[in-house]
Amino acid sequence: MATSAIGPGFLTQTSVFTSQFAASFGFVILASIILDIGAQINIWRIIAVSEKRAQDIANMVFPGLGYFLALLIVIGGLAFNIGNIAGAGLGFNVLFGIDVKTGAIVSALIAIGIFLSKEAGKAMDRFTQILGLLMIGLTLYVAIKSAPPVGEAVIRTFAPVVEEKDRAAFFMAIVTLVGGTVGGYITFAGGHRLLDAGMKGPDALPQVTRSSVSGILITAMMRTVLFLAAFGVVAAGLALDTKNPPASVFKLAAGDIGFKLFGVVMWAAAITSVVGSAYTSVSFIRTFSEKLEKNHKWIIIGFIIVSTIVFALIGRPVKTLILVGALNGFILPIALGIMLIAAYKSKIVGNYKHPLWLTIFGALVVGVMSYMGGVTLLKEIPKLFI
Question: Its membrane topology, per UniProt (predicted)?
Fold first, then answer.
């Protein structure tokens, strides 16, 4: 789940918003962490105790609702995966100087190789864990080199300074971060993976809850380290390259070595997100028929191939990555709302009693995300097309 969240869009969004809001972006990260935890604990617990995937739960809440949710997730996952494939190609381009599209194809073949492995589940888990640690370590090095004013970042995390005219943009930043961390397919990447790993039922709830929170904290750690790296560059009065904001953070902070490190981080972030996006998106349709279930591995491979072909044809602009993150943020209130209703249906969860405080927490997340999503849709999304 964490490495699915940390992709090219994650790197781009964090860099762009740090450049826009400077130290006050720390508040956006803090707010998003709270909303992320409220959403993910609820969703993972309900999936685990029901021992069913989200689309099947939704169909039990209201017939046909699961198909609608699956459609939203698959479309969002495919859009994200096009950016992920592009990011992997860009990482190869920075590291080895090869054409971005060639790098994307090679990366897609590596991802496909993971799913062709006899131990695909274990291979996927180990692969993402190793690259996740590598990403955090390298970005921490760049953050140290950029020497950000940490004191100011801490103060503005709890007392942000935002002008009235920038409030809608501030809301969009929160919606985009939440959407990029637990929106769309991402929160289900972990919930569905736990089911496949056999971690389900009421007895597994303590471990499921710990896992859901640790996934958010790992993502938050990477987000904070990248924010500090970018803030150090911005605070020094340097401007980020609008064509590739995260690459310029690494290069301005640590020179040519930093640029090469960016290549490693970008590739690691992208390829793990390719794996997570393909796996989770297909997990939303595989239970609809025995034929889909039987051939789900080949459908995952087809999902990766289609993403690669689309990228080769149309590419990946920075604005698209921000837009997709925001749109996935709109899916979250729908998905979480369905799960909260399911938590009180005995035919889905049996004798399980969902804690009242979690229901209230989840309902607040639905309300806050719906409100900020509405403001974003009306005032900020149109600006991306100007």
Answer: Multi-pass membrane protein
